[in-house]
Amino acid sequence: PPAGAVEALVHHRLVPVVVLDDAADAPALGDALVAGGLPVAEVTFRTPAARTAIARLADRGDLLVGAGTVLTPAQVDQAVAAGAAFVVSPGTSAAVIERCGEHGVPVVPGGVTPTEVMRALELGVGLVKFFPAGTSGGAPAVAALASVFAGVRFVPTGGIGPRELPDYLALACVAAVAGSWMVPRDRVRARDVAGIATLTRDAVAAADAVRP
Ligand code: 3PG
Q1: Theoretical Cys-Cys bridge with 173: which of 20, 63, 66, 146, CB 3.0 to 4.6 Å?
Q2: Whose alpha carbon is nearest atom 8 of ligand 1?
């Protein structure tokens, strides 16, 4: 249920960000994530397959499925209609956040500056996607932001892989880390269940090894 989606994201501490070229690839992706021990998927609205893929994954009932790269209120409507339990946006848009509020679906807007974080707070959101993390100062920048925004939690995303993951997850202000490294687009397209499951399992183990 949407009310628990954020809690579930925080519980898993990792969010696979998926670009699906063909909704028919969604079942294999879902199988791989479940096998890898991370039953979470943020399906990006960057391909026409996104809506159907969200619906297919959500219908399984064994995955927490959200929509990513949501840029407009119309996409919020589409994501919710497809069954998305949470919405992620690269930036902080009042229109997107308000539409999510109307639907009662949790939203994680993007921000990397104090002004952007304050904008999210003014709009009632305390969980911010720190994106693009790698080129915006990385973990030290997240820690610096957190030092002035007590209570704000971050989801660093963008340019993160196994090497960078521990630096972010060591921060108490980091609720979860998102990224596509466990679900490479070519492997999703190839329906490489074993390969994606291994990458996912490795990410879960790496996350478990790091606590703030
Ligand atoms: C996103 O949509 O959040 C980003 O594409 C994820 O970034 P990454 O592909 O560098 O992990």
Answers
A1: 146
A2: 158
Residues paired with 179 in a beta bridge: 16
Residues having CB within 6 Å of any atom of ligand 1:
17, 44, 68-69, 131, 157-160, 178-181
Domain range summary for the chain, segments of one domain joined by +: 2-208
Task: Select from 20, 42, 88, 180 the residue to mutate for testing ligand 1; criterion: most ligand atoms less than 8 Å from CB.
Answer: 180
176 DSSP assignment: -
Q: Sorting pLDDT into bands at 50, 70 and 90, what band is 212? A: confident
Please, which residues have CB within 8 angstroms of residue 134's CB and are 6 or more apart in sequence? 158, 159, 160, 164
Distance 62 CA to ligand 1 centre (A): 23
CA of 10 to the centre of ligand 1 (A): 18
CA-to-CA dists, residue 211 to 61, 77, 160, 161, 166, angstroms: 29, 36, 17, 17, 9
The overall pTM is greater than 0.90: yes
Name the residue with the closest Cα to ligand 1, atom 5: 158
Euclidean distance between the first and final Cα of the chain, in Å?
Answer: 28
ipTM: 0.95
